[in-house]
Amino acid sequence: QDTGQQADFEINSGFTTHLRPYQKAGVLWMAELFRNNWGGCLADDMGLGKTIQMLAFLRQFAGRGEGASLIVMPASLIHNWKNEILRFAPDLRYLVHTGNQRTRDTAIFAGFDLVLTTYGICRNDQTMLSQYSFFYIILDESQMIRNPEALTSQAVYSLQSRYRLVLT
After folding, report:
1. Would 135 disulfide with which of 16, 22, 66, 117, CB 3.0-4.6 Å?
2. At 56, which helix (H) or strand (E)?
3. What is the pLDDT of residues 106-140, one digit of tens each?
4. Using N-to-C axis directions, what is the helix angle for 78-88 and 50-58, rounded to 10°?
5. Computed from CA positions of residues 114, 142, 33, 8, in that sequence, does the dihedral angle turn out positive or negative?
6. How far apart are the two ends of the chain, measured CA to CA in Å?
């Protein structure tokens, strides 16, 4: 299905590292999913660069007015995502939506390319987060929603987005 949306995926343009051939293949595969209006699952061994591939893919949409993308992850990965953004895609505007001082107003999300949050915050802020229509929702360590009856899974399912991808 052609959605009429085309993205020029110049993977290394503005990205601070050159991707390995298998990482480029992953980014181009996600671009193909986007062009066909499909979701997908990027599954790979730990340490092979799923985060970098996702950042290379998402930065192609930065500044295009698509709205923020939500990345949901275990709390232990927030620091890693922040470091990878700063190192490889410092032009991406990101918000860490965690902690007691986090926003309660989704209007702020429009000023960012990425919103990083945890599965626990997603569960706790379900009502607020479900009021915003994200561009992409990306679930890192997506096995966290393997039980469809769990409150965390139900919270994630309730969120709105144009596109969805999972990493595992």
Report:
1. 66
2. helix 50-58
3. 999 999 999 999 999 999 999 999 999 999 999 99
4. 60
5. positive
6. 26
pLDDT higher than threshold 50 for residue 160:
yes
Two structure tokens written together for 145? 């929603």
Containing H/E element for 121?
helix 119-124
> How many other C-beta atoms can be found within 10 angstroms of the C-beta atom of residue 98?
15
Nearest-angstrom CA–CA distance, 167 and 140? 5
In degrees and rounded to multiples of 5, residue 40 shows phi and psi of -170, 175
Report d(CA 57, CA 10) in Å as an integer.
10
Strand order in the sheet with 160-167: 40-42, 160-167, 133-139, 69-73, 114-118, 94-96
Contact partners, residue 13, CB within 8 Å, separation at least 6: none
The per-residue pLDDT for 4 is 38
User: What is the C-alpha to C-alpha distance for residues 54 and 165, in angstroms, rounded to an integer?
Assistant: 9
